[in-house]
Write a structure and sequence with these properties.
Protein name: HTH araC/xylS-type domain-containing protein
Largest sheet: 6 strands, antiparallel
Shape: globular
GO molecular function, one term: DNA-binding transcription factor activity
CATH class of the largest domain: Mainly Beta
Number of strands: 12
Strand order of the largest sheet: 1-2-11-5-8-12
Number of helices: 11
Radius of gyration: 21 Å
Keywords: DNA-binding, Transcription, Transcription regulation
Strand content: 15-25%
Pfam families: ExsA_N (PF22200), HTH_18 (PF12833)
Organism: Spirosoma radiotolerans
């Protein structure tokens, strides 16, 4: 079980003594984090990013990913500090420092900053607040957020475009996007935002295109992928349900049985015998 402490509105500390496969697949804001111990693996359509102990990473907002957290090589717990750089804080900083409008950022969505000694020192300064969260007041957190922005801007030219590209996703090809990203477990509102639509427009465009509701289409698509992974790749249901976008195994099992008339575990046994 992961224990998350909100040290302040945009600064969090997470700790766990066991492996975690997260059902959270989306960050709406930029996230800057350090692995204090353990390991985090982020899986995206563009590749995999691994954070080991001491690693510092900046993740761009509006990215879809799947996350697996593991204990350290000697059983060290999973522990990390995350600071979210929200749009309001970045807008205020840009106005205060007269930063001009940036063009669309086209660089990597995840940037490895593990060798930056100044960011390492920055996170070291946050560690004492883990056991004294009441000391991290709103004013202190605001100063810390500005400090993080300053340190990122000093780290390289690409970070101004990374942080201050305030453009929202534009209206894109809905069919291609959904077929490419259906396995990510995020709310419909997030799918709508990522495809450049309001929720009502997303639902209307989706129904017109796929001739069914987003909820029904997503469940069918995920179940069909699960059937393939179990029957052809010989994976266990417990390995599949999170992979295709379900939140819990019992809901997946019941939905699978209703659609295909066979238990997922029975299909797995049958496919294993056919090898």
């Amino acid at each position: 079980m992961e224990n998350t402490i909100r040290l302040q509105h945009n600064i969090m500390y997470s700790h766990s003594d066991q492996k975690i496969r997260s059902t959270e697949h989306y960050f709406p804001e930029h996230a800057l984090g350090i692995m204090l111990s353990g390991e985090s693996q982020y899986f995206t359509n563009e590749g995999t990013f691994v954070m080991n102990q001491g690693a510092i990473c900046l993740m761009r907002r509006h990215q879809l990913f799947k996350k697996l957290k593991n204990l350290g090589p000697h059983g060290e717990p999973i522990a990390l500090i995350s600071l979210f750089l929200d749009q309001e804080s970045l807008h205020e900083y840009a106005t205060e420092h007269k930063i001009v409008k940036q063009s669309t950022y086209k660089g990597p969505p995840m940037v490895n900053l593990s060798e930056n000694v100044f960011l390492k020192g920055f996170f070291d300064s946050l560690v004492p607040y883990i056991n004294n969260p009441q000391k991290l007041t709103v004013n202190v957190a605001t100063l810390k957020t500005k400090e993080a922005i300053e340190l990122l801007l000093q780290a390289g030219d690409l970070f101004q475009g990374f942080l201050f590209d305030f453009q929202e996703p534009y209206k894109i090809d809905l069919e291609a996007y959904m077929n490419h990203n259906y396995q990510y477990n995020i709310p419909l509102m997030s799918f709508a935002k990522l495809t450049g639509r309001s929720l009502s427009t997303f639902k209307r465009d989706f129904t017109k295109l796929f001739e069914t509701t987003p909820e029904k289409w997503l469940q069918q698509k995920r179940l069909e992928q699960a059937y393939y992974l179990i029957s052809q790749k010989h994976l266990r249901p417990s390995e599949v349900y999170l992979e295709v976008g379900f939140e819990n195994l019992s809901h997946f099992s019941a939905s699978f049985n209703r659609k295909f008339g066979i238990n997922a575990s029975d299909l797995q046994t049958k496919s294993s015998l056919s090898i």
